Structures are given as C-alpha cells and as structure tokens.
Amino acid sequence: MTVTELVSYEDALAAYDPVMGLEVHVELGTKTKMFCGCSTALGAEPNTQTCPTCLGLPGSLPVVNATGVESAIKIGLALNCEIAEWCRFARKNYFYPDMPKNFQTSQYDEPIAYNGYLDVDVDGEVFRVEIERAHMEEDTGKSTHVGGATGRIHGAQHSLLDYNRAGIPLIEIVTKPIVGAGEKAPEVAKAYVTELRELIKSLGVSEARMEMGQMRCDVNLSLRPRGVEKFGTRSETKNVNSLRSVERAVRFEVQRHAAVLDDGGTIIQETRHFHEEDGSTTSGRVKEEAEDYRYFPEPDLVPVAPTRAWVEELRGGLPELPRVYRNRLREEWGLSRHEMQSVLNAGAIDLITATIDEGAPADQARKWWMGELARRANEDGVELAALPITPAQVARVCALVKEGSLNDKLARQTIEGVLAGEGGPDEVVTKRGLKVVSDEGALGTAVDEAIAANAAIADKIRGGKVAAAGALVGAVMKATRGQADAARVRELILEKLGVEG
Amino acid sequence: MPGITREEVAHLARLARLELKAEELDHFAGQLDDIIGAVARVSEVADQDVPPTSHPLPLTNVMRVDEVRPSLTPQQALACAPAQEQQRFKVPQILGEE
Ligand SMILES: [Zn+2]
C-alpha cells in the first residue's frame, strides 16, 4: 500500500471544490424491535433478546412496530419532508453473519419520507442542507472478532455474534449532495450532524447518543476541480461516531483526495474506515453495486400507508424545534448568535440548561462549561458531556463562589479535583483545604505585613493614589497562596490606610 | 430477447456464495435464460396499466403496539447453532485471504 503525502487543506481548497453526502443512522428509542416484540434494552446478556423472527428462523413472520413508523414520520416532518402515502419495505440481500436472515429489512425506492431540508447555523449564517430521504430499516447484530491482533476483523480466526441488537429500528437519513460549502465543508458537516442530533432528541424518538452508537454517520466525499460541474468519484467513510470526528473525517478526505488527484491518480469508489486516534481513514472493501444487493419488495410485510389525518395529527404535535428553542435561550442568556453557536458546537446546551436548573446563574453556568470544562474536554479529546462532572456539581461550585467560600482560582482547583475523581465539590474543598481565607485576624495580619514590606506604596495610597492598592492586594494574595477574597483584602488595605474606596 | 450471460450467472453465484463448476455455469445460464424469457413474455402482456404485485393480499398498515414480548432464552436461541462460544453464535472467519 502506498502512503500518499497529504496536501495542505488550504492548497486542496484552492484547487478543488468539495461535495459531500452524509448518511446518518439513528437507532430509535422504541421499547421493542422493528419487526418483533423483543426488548431493545441496553446492556443485556448476549442473545437474551432474540426470537424466531429476529433470528430469521423458518416460518417466522415480521410485524411492523407502530411506534417505529410514527417516529419515522415525526423525523420526516421535522426535516420538512413529504411523507409517502404508500410505501413498502424491501429486502437488502447480503451474506454477512451480522444479519442472521442473510438480508436486512430496509426500504429501497419507496422511503417513508423524502425531499426535505434542515437549516443549520455555520458561523452565524444559515446553511440549508437538502434531505434526499429518510427511510426505515433495522440494525444488525454485534460481532466480536477473535484471534486478530486488536479485535479487528482482519486476521481474525473466527467471530462471535450477539443478536440482541439485530432488528432494533433504525432510521437512515440521507442528504442530497451538499454543494457550495467550500472551505467550510468540515464545519457544515459537523453543524448538520449536530443539528440533526438536537432535532432527534427534541422529538423524543431517540437519545441519539453518538458515544453509545445510537447515532452513526457515514461521510461521502468527492472533489471536483474548481469550475467543473461534474462530481468526482466519492469515497464513503463509515462509522464516524462523534461530532468532532465528522469534522476531522471530512478534512482528512479533502486532503487525501487532493493528494491523489494532484498526483494524476484516480479516486476509487470504496468504503473507508475512520481512525479516532489520528483522524485518518484507511481503505476498506470496494463498494458493492446497489444491484448486488438484489433489493426486492419484502413479501412478508404489507405496505405502510400513513393516512393524511395521522400525518397531520403528528405534525400538529411536533415540539418546538431546536433552532427556535435555541433562539429563545439565546435571548434569555443574552448571547450573540456566534456565542450561541459555540455553545451548540461544544454540545453544551443541555449541560448549561441543567446547571441553571440546579440553581446556577446563566452566565456562571456558561462560563464554566464553555471555559475551563470545554478546554479540558478538548485536551482529553472527549465530548463535553463525557467529562466526569455533573451539572449539579458545577452548580454547587457556582454556589460556593457566590457565598464567598471560593474565589475563581479555588473554584478552578475544585473542578480539577472533581474531574480527577476526588469526589464532589464539597469533598474536594475539604480534602484539598480550598477555602477562601476569611479569618479576619489572619487576613489582617497578612495585610499589615504587606503594608510594612511596601512602605513606599502604602504612602502613595495614603496620599490618595487608590489605584496603587492593586500591588498590595497582589502581595497579600501571594502570601495567602491565592486563598483570600481579593475584594475583602482591598477593603482591609484601604481601611487600614484610612482611605475611602 | 435479452437473456442472461454466463458471466452474470458467475457473478450471481458469487453473491449467493455458491461454488459452481464451469459446466454448471453453462447449465444454469441456459435454465435461467428460459425463466427470464418466460417472465419477459408475461411482462409484454402486462403493460403499464397493470401494476406489479408484491403481495397477494390487499392489506396495508398491519402494525403492532410497541410492547415487549418474551424472547427466547439464550439456550433456545443457540440450540441450533453449529457452534457457540461465550453465549454467542460462533461463525467461521469472515474475511478470507483475498
Ligand atoms: Zn425478536
């Protein structure tokens, strides 16, 4: 295998125009599978949630889950799609042990929802992503590969299958080719998946937790030379499973395609694997043609024909959509569009809202999640929500600051302790001895010492140069190792020197 | 009459994971060609005004309520598995040395 030297992102964009297609699979949060009554509860022992239908045993017959169809229609409506008056399921035939039936029940040329769009915010501007279709299908089983070097399929001696997940309802949402994003293609891709996740969550049809595999993204990307109308050959990067990875995968593929094309090479239409460690992709199998799946209408299921009355009833019951909700929050929190977008991109909206619900002021809640905590999440390469600190704990830190027991610096150390697993905020404060020195006697002594050691400055202050007090405050803070309330220190200094603040 | 070529039969056999000998490819190509030809003749009679039938019953919207039903026990589920390990179905190597 030859390793192609990547072209810099800027050079790639100067020569080529990226075209993207995003396919997102969402696992619905129904109680049962799409075509049988097996439970979908997470964390069950292997093969405890299967039945003759989802195992594909002879003589079994599937029956459609009404809530699955309802969820699909809700998603379609929220994506401004048309809802099919009549549509069927189809068998997608392939031999792979993750589906015991040797086919996946899906929809082919008759998706339940089609022709929609989703508006997303990118850099304070609205970018419209057109939706080709949203269709119903089922998830596959889970394989464990044994005997390979790192649990990968390559080099494995055999594989073990757990079919608990086989048959869980999935909705696949496919965009039309996304053109016109230009250099912002990675941001647009991330913003789209972010917005879609928010939308799905707001509909209550799935928790859409990417880290749990409840939402998975395939990134199709091609480049065309600037000024050329025709799309280039695309690669399909599978299972890009975090918002950050979506952005990285697009960026990497832009740079890789450009390198291949610059070399006079051709892009092979193939699936590629994304690697979280370094954000790269590597070649997977050469893509089978659609006709190789030999789709045909599923004879064991009858068509789904949602009545217009039902569709309208569902439309009437749609919740406030995330962009509308966000605008409302934005006004409540007094943020600019740009600031609000950062909050969204950081995945911090729910966290901040929850922190406010726990009693923290909006500005404080945002300050911690978007400052210290966002920095830590970024450093550790994890989603903000994955940090080992809860909104209630952040709210408690805010409360400790408000009552004066912690200053900013100590609050940061407290959060550090919570993240390090030392316990809740109160526990960390006790264990680390992080309390603002409020003992007036000790503070008074520190102030006296600072005045004595800096006689010249003290004289200036006595003479009316109140601004010079900062130097003495600094000296006291240093002496108390930052554990004093700076405002109180200043008051004491001015008091002792007989000056009005 | 557009039939089916020997190469297409070989391709389908590969997709269906069937190992066919050279003479079998010729044999099945002929047989499948007959079947495709017969279906094509029916298609000629059934013009645009006759929609294809995917289901014999005029039913739509047969759905069930989202309520959990008992599943099989893992012992029952695995009862017919040719091989098992760690309460999972054990299958041969998936990717061959290609
Ligand atoms: Zn089942």
Automatic annotation (TrEMBL), chain A:
Q: Which residues belong to the signal peptide in this entry?
A: none
Q: Which InterPro entries match?
A: Asn/Gln-tRNA_amidoTrfase_suB/E (IPR017959), Asn/Gln-tRNA_Trfase_suB/E_cat (IPR006075), Asn/Gln_amidotransferase (IPR018027), GatB (IPR004413), Gln-tRNA_amidoTrfase_suB_CS (IPR017958)
What keywords sit in the KW lines?
Answer: ATP-binding, Ligase, Nucleotide-binding, Protein biosynthesis
The protein's superkingdom reads Bacteria
Q: Which PROSITE patterns match?
A: GATB
Enzymatic reactions: L-glutamyl-tRNA(Gln) + L-glutamine + ATP + H2O = L-glutaminyl-tRNA(Gln) + L-glutamate + ADP + phosphate + H(+); L-aspartyl-tRNA(Asn) + L-glutamine + ATP + H2O = L-asparaginyl-tRNA(Asn) + L-glutamate + ADP + phosphate + 2 H(+)
Enzyme Commission numbers on file: 6.3.5.-
* Assembly mode: Heterotrimer of A, B and C subunits.
The record's family statement is: Belongs to the GatB/GatE family. GatB subfamily.
Official protein name in the record: Aspartyl/glutamyl-tRNA(Asn/Gln) amidotransferase subunit B
Question: What organism is listed for this UniProt entry?
Answer: Streptomyces niphimycinicus
UniProtKB/TrEMBL annotation, chain B:
Q: Which domain of life is it from?
A: Bacteria
| Reactions accelerated catalytically | L-glutamyl-tRNA(Gln) + L-glutamine + ATP + H2O = L-glutaminyl-tRNA(Gln) + L-glutamate + ADP + phosphate + H(+); L-aspartyl-tRNA(Asn) + L-glutamine + ATP + H2O = L-asparaginyl-tRNA(Asn) + L-glutamate + ADP + phosphate + 2 H(+)
Which key words tag this protein in UniProt? ATP-binding, Ligase, Nucleotide-binding, Protein biosynthesis
Q: What Enzyme Commission number(s) apply to this enzyme?
A: 6.3.5.-
Catalytic class of the enzyme: ligase
Instruction: State the similarity comment.
Output: Belongs to the GatC family.
NCBIfam families xrefs: gatC
The protein's assembly and partners: Heterotrimer of A, B and C subunits.
State what this protein does: Allows the formation of correctly charged Asn-tRNA(Asn) or Gln-tRNA(Gln) through the transamidation of misacylated Asp-tRNA(Asn) or Glu-tRNA(Gln) in organisms which lack either or both of asparaginyl-tRNA or glutaminyl-tRNA synthetases. The reaction takes place in the presence of glutamine and ATP through an activated phospho-Asp-tRNA(Asn) or phospho-Glu-tRNA(Gln).
Q: What is this protein called?
A: Aspartyl/glutamyl-tRNA(Asn/Gln) amidotransferase subunit C
